Each structure stands twice: as structure tokens, then as C-alpha cells.
């Protein structure tokens, strides 16, 4: 039975009870007094609706792609992006909407909530229809809803057998590790990004009206009540969305830290959140970069994150004022540690060059059942540049279409090392529903990959004849020495321009970096990209130059 049908049935039952029951404070039948106490009716509706929805079967399974950051034992300071595919039962899933108030003391925060709210409402509406339980948590204002059926759903929820430690309190840090590293941003001034800063206060009176509250939902800002609701419905999976990620979303009694500590499979919906961060405070980055840093912090120390695409099927939400050039890293290889080396390079672009960066990560274990699976490439509809570091994969056709469409519209591309054979699985990928691109190297990159020389000799990269003044080479101290085995790449495709050539003893030079055009797209490729190369500031300078050149920013 669909949840909407369950609710309608519950309301009919409540109506019958209203006609034949007794009124509040009076044992006589309601019909003998000519009416039914409105408050009693609401209590009955709330109880019946809540129990009915709790027992209703969910819709079809939710396919959820979780992103987290894991520190390898060998290199604990270098977090890897790890994506995990899970299947969730909607009936065992809840969404908590945190502090989406009708007004904030900071005007900038208020404006962003106004922009965010319609998207939150759309996502919640879709989720509700699929059987997900919705909890509205406009902290400090629930008194406004004291007679709302959704408030009574929370008040009248059966008491859980036991409450987890700390569930009734704010939690500043999840554990000693998180407390030691602290936040990556300084919000000690309250986080208002306006000029001049707004006067602090508590002007909110309720949740913003754009987000619809159904009678079958719940309203609560109490950690104990929220826990009762989750336990009564046997909810395992909890999605937090709302504001602000660095304050309420993480720290409230019903927030990410407490629910993670209590053992719930809790995640942050990273595109439907914001931060209280003043960009004039450390690390003095764009406001939206501050949000990205908090998302990364959450993924490292608290819980994974997801995006609204799982419900909408559309690209993640982005604020209209977020005008940062956008770089997407398409990472899926298992030889050179791209999952480990790309995140710090992405952060260098964020902090040092004001770029927006996202990492779409594929499996790194060649034995993984998801080796030829990836999700999240719909974000390329928003991107200015994609950096491809993949090897021998054949991905789902609906995902590869985003890459093909991106290039067809002139999106810039950088290929790193194994990108020359990124989408040629040599027949190992499933044929049904998967898309390979064996000619990606000559067609897009302008290369001619023919294998590589044996490992051992260091590759020495020096300027190719002619393009010494090219923007990609500006400020790069040459030669570059690399532990990467030298790729056989000559001759390049007509139209490609070699920038660097690599040599090893007793072999002819091979191009190791060049530019190309694919339709209207600027393309840069280098066969360098060994994990050791990323420790070389001159190699990173080369890549930064390439990123800016590809987007026509230098």
C-alpha cells in the first residue's frame, strides 16, 4: 500500500472515531454534545497516521551512492575518496530537515535558505512519495506547531527502550580525532559573510513556509523525540539536509554526530546545505569553498555524504552566486594512487586558485564487482573542466553520455597518464548497457598510446622544440624527473602540439605532454602522473597551468 493510501485510510479511521468517540474532558458521547474536541481529533489523526506510515511498506529500493574519505594505514595524512553503493529500503529511511528557518539573523543566510527551500521541498516531496519518513526540525520554534498533526506524531511516538548517550545534548565533536584536527574554517565571529556583518539574534519563528509539512510527517527539535520516532519505525538510514553544516547539522542533538555515534547509517546531503562562514576569516576563501571544506571534514571524520540526485535524477543543486570555475576529477584507476593524490591537488586548486572542485570516484580494487560502475557524472552538466584519470574501464552508457555531451559542448579536458587507455576495457566490461571509447586517446587526447617501456629508469622531461613560451610551461622549472615508466606515444595525432618530451637511456624521445583540440574543447594530456610526481611542486605547477589554460584563465 502506498504511504498516501495509508494516510487516507488513517484519516478515514480518525473520522469514524471522531463521530463515535468521546470529547476531551467529557465521558459523554460526542454526538450528545454536538461536537468533537479538535485537539482530541488531532491526537487521534497523528497517532493513527504515524502508526500506519510506520507499518507501511516502502516503495522501490533506493540506490544510494555514498562518498566518504578514508585515511590509508600507510599514509594516514592522505585521505582517499571512496564511493560505496548501497540499496536502501525507503520504509527504513528518514530525512531530517535541520533549521530551515523562515528568517535568520544573517541576511545572507536568509537569502540562501530562500534559494535552497524550493529544492528541499521538491526532494522531500519525491522522497515522501517513495515511502521515506520526513522529520521537520526548525529548532526553537516547535511551539508554533503544538496543534499540528505532525507535531503530535512526534509527541506521541512510543518511547524507545533506551536513549543513546548524548542524544539529548549538543555534540561539538564526534571523537578525539575530530576535536584534535578542528574545523578547516574559522567561524568564531558567527559566520556572517555580509558587509557590514548583521546583528546577531534569534528572529526565526518557524520553518520557511515553502517546505510543505504533511500530517504524516513529524515536527521535533528534540533528540529524544527524534530517536523515539526512528526506533518506532525501525529506521536504519537517516539523511540530514538544511543549515548550517558547520553548526546545527553536525552538532544538534538530532544531528550527524549524535546519530553516527548511536549507530544509525546517517549521511549528509551535501548539495542541500550551507555554512555560516565569513570569507574574510581563515582560510580566507570563497564562502562556498568554506562549505566544501566542511563537507570534506564531515566525510573524513563524521559520516558519508550523498547528493539530491538520488531522488530527482537531476544534477546537484548549486547556489546562483557560486560562480567559481568548476573542475570535476573523474578518477578510476588502480595503479598509481589517483584516489589518494587527486584530493590534495583538488584542495590546492580550491584554496590557492579559488576553483570549485568535485571528485567522482570509481572503484580502485580490480576485484571489485563495481569495477565498471560509476555514478555522479551528471555533475558534468555544470562543469567547466574535467580531469580524467581512469584506466581500462567500461562504464554505464547513461553515465558516459554526460562525458560525451560535455565534450560536444566544448567543455575543457585534461588527461592524466592512464587516460590514454581510460575507456578500453579490452572486453572485460559488461557489454549490455555499458559504453567504451577505445579511440578516446587519438580522437580526444590527440595521442598514440602503444604501451610503455619497462619500469626502472627515471624519465627526464624537457621542453619540446618550439613551444617554450606556452602558458602551460610558464614558471615550471625543467627538466622534470619522474619515476613513471615512459609511455610510447609517438607520433602524435595531427593537430596535437608537443610541450614536453621524455627520455630514458638508449631509447628515442617520446612526447610526455601536449595540447590538442577536440571539436571546440581545449585538451591537455600528460603521460606523467605517477604518485611520486604529485610530491614534486614543479609537476603540480605544470598541472595548475594546464587547468587554467584549458579553461582559458591564464
Structural features, described:
This protein folds into three domains: 3-55; 89-160 and 170-307, 3-Layer(aba) Sandwich (Rossmann fold); 332-550, Rossmann fold, CATH 3.40.50. Helices cover 30% and strands 19% of the residues. It has helices spanning 3-20, 30-33, 38-55, 107-129, 149-155, 176-181, 223-232, 245-251, 256-261, 287-301, 309-312, 338-353, 397-408, 440-445, 537-550, and strands spanning 62-70, 80-88, 93-98, 133-137, 218-219, 237-242, 265-273, 305-306, 326-332, 356-361, 385-390, 395-396, 412-416, 434-435, 459-463, 480-482, 497-503, 510-518, 521-526. The strands form four sheets. The protein has a nine-stranded mixed sheet. Mean pLDDT is 90; it is low at 1-58.
Secondary-structure blueprint:
Blueprint: H1 3-20, H2 30-33, H3 38-55, E1 62-70, E2 80-88, E3 93-98, H4 107-129, E4 133-137, H5 149-155, H6 176-181, E5 218-219, H7 223-232, E6 237-242, H8 245-251, H9 256-261, E7 265-273, H10 287-301, E8 305-306, H11 309-312, E9 326-332, H12 338-353, E10 356-361, E11 385-390, E12 395-396, H13 397-408, E13 412-416, E14 434-435, H14 440-445, E15 459-463, E16 480-482, E17 497-503, E18 510-518, E19 521-526, H15 537-550
Parallel strand pairs: 3-4, 3-6, 4-5, 6-7, 7-8, 9-10, 9-11, 11-13, 13-19
Antiparallel strand pairs: 1-2, 12-14, 15-16, 15-17, 17-18, 18-19
Amino acid at each position: 500500500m502506498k504511504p498516501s493510501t495509508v494516510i487516507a485510510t488513517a484519516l478515514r479511521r480518525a473520522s469514524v472515531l471522531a463521530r463515535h468517540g468521546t470529547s476531551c474532558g467529557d465521558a459523554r458521547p460526542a454526538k450528545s454534545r454536538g461536537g468533537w474536541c479538535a485537539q482530541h481529533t488531532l491526537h487521534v489523526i497523528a497517532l493513527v497516521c504515524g502508526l500506519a506510515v510506520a507499518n507501511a511498506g516502502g516503495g522501490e529500493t533506493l540506490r544510494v551512492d555514498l562518498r566518504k574519505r578514508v585515511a590509508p594505514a600507510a599514509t594516514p595524512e592522505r585521505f582517499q575518496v571512496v564511493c560505496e553503493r548501497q540499496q536502501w529500503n525507503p520504509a527504513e529511511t528518514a530525512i531530517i530537515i535541520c533549521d530551515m528557518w523562515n528568517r535568520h539573523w544573517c541576511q545572507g543566510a536568509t537569502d540562501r535558505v530562500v534559494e535552497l527551500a524550493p529544492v528541499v521541498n521538491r526532494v522531500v516531496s519525491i522522497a515522501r512519495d517513495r515511502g521515506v519518513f520526513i522529520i521537520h526540525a526548525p529548532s526553537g520554534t516547535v511551539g508554533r506547531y503544538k496543534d499540528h498533526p505532525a507535531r503530535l506524531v512526534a509527541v506521541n511516538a512510543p518511547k524507545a527502550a533506551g536513549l543513546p548517550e548524548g542524544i539529548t545534548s549538543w555534540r561539538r565533536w564526534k571523537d578525539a580525532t575530530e576535536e584534535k584536527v578542528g574545523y578547516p574554517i574559522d567561524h568564531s565571529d558567527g559566520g556572517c559573510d555580509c558587509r557590514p556583518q548583521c546583528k546577531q539574534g534569534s528572529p526565526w519563528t518557524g520553518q520557511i513556509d515553502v517546505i510543505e509539512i504533511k500530517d504524516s510527517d513529524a515536527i521535533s527539535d528534540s533528540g529524544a523525540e527524534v530517536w523515539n520516532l526512528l526506533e518506532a519505525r525501525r529506521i536504519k538510514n537517516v539523511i540530514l539536509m538544511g543549515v548550517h553544516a558547520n553548526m546545527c547539522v553536525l552538532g544538534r542533538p538530532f544531528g550527524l554526530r549524535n546519530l553516527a555515534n548511536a549507530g544509525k547509517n546517517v549521511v549528509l546531503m551535501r548539495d542541500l546545505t550551507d555554512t555560516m562562514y565569513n570569507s574574510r576569516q581563515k582560510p580566507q576563501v570563497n564562502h562556498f569553498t568554506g562549505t566544501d571544506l566542511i563537507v570534506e571534514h564531515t566525510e573524513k571524520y563524521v559520516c558519508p555524504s550523498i547528493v539530491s540526485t538520488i531522488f530527482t535524477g537531476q544534477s546537484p543543486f548549486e547556489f546562483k552566486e557560486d560562480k567559481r570555475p568548476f573542475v570535476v576529477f573523474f578518477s578510476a584507476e588502480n595503479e598509481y594512487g589517483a584516489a589518494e593524490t587527486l584530493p590534495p591537488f583538488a584542495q590546492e586548486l580550491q584554496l590557492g586558485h579559488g576553483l570549485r572542485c568535485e571528485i567522482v570516484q570509481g572503484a580502485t580494487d580490480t576485484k571489485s564487482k563495481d569495477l565498471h560502475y560509476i555514478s555522479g557524472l551528471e555533475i558534468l552538466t555544470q562543469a567547466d573542466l574535467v580531469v580524467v584519470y581512469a584506466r581500462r574501464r567500461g562504464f554505464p552508457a547513461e553515465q558516459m553520455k554526460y562525458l560525451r555531451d560535455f565534450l560536444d559542448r566544448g567543455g575543457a579536458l585534461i588527461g592524466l597518464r592512464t587516460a590514454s587507455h581510460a575507456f578500453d576495457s579490452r572486453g572485460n566490461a559488461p557489454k549490455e548497457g555499458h559504453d567504451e571509447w577505445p579511440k578516446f586517446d587519438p580522437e580526444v587526447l590527440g595521442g598514440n598510446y602503444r604501451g610503455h617501456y619497462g619500469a626502472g629508469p627515471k624519465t627526464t622531461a624537457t621542453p619540446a622544440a618550439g613551444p617554450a613560451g606556452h602558458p602551460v610551461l610558464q614558471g615550471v622549472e625543467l627538466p622534470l624527473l619522474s619515476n613513471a615508466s615512459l609511455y610510447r606515444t609517438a607520433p602524435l595525432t595531427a593537430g596535437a602540439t608537443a610541450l614536453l618530451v621524455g627520455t630514458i637511456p638508449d631509447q628515442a624521445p617520446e612526447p610526455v605532454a601536449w595540447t590538442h583540440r577536440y571539436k571546440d574543447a581545449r585538451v591537455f594530456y600528460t603521460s606523467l602522473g605517477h604518485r611520486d610526481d604529485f610530491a614534486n611542486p614543479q609537476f603540480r605547477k605544470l598541472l595548475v597551468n594546464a587547468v587554467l589554460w584549458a579553461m582559458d584563465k591564464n
